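We modelled the chain as a single entity of 103 amino acids. Its sequence is:
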Amino acid sequence: MICNPYEIVIQGLTEEGRTFRPSDWAERLCGILASFGDKKLAYHAYVRPMLLEGVRCVAVDKKLEKINPQVFQFLTDFAHDNKLRIVDCRTLIDEIYPNKFLG
């Protein structure tokens, strides 16, 4: 599974179809919410970077909107300000694998 049905995905492609820069933007964005424990970086439980079809993305659990609406708003504002696509994981799966779940 590329993402979970309860996530939204911020894709690293602009509205014009260009790759968003810098190339490590997803890790940086997730790093804002990360913490250090046992000398290791741990991403937030509801925000994680991912690579999808060669495009850097950030997966955000929809629970974050209820648990911490300010952080959820920050992430969606970041996407809107940079003209990045936000898509529901279910929609994304249907786009990438349109016939995968057909009988």
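As a brief sanity check on the tokenised model: The CA atoms of residues 10 and 86 lie 5 Å apart. The first strand starts at residue 7 and ends at 14.
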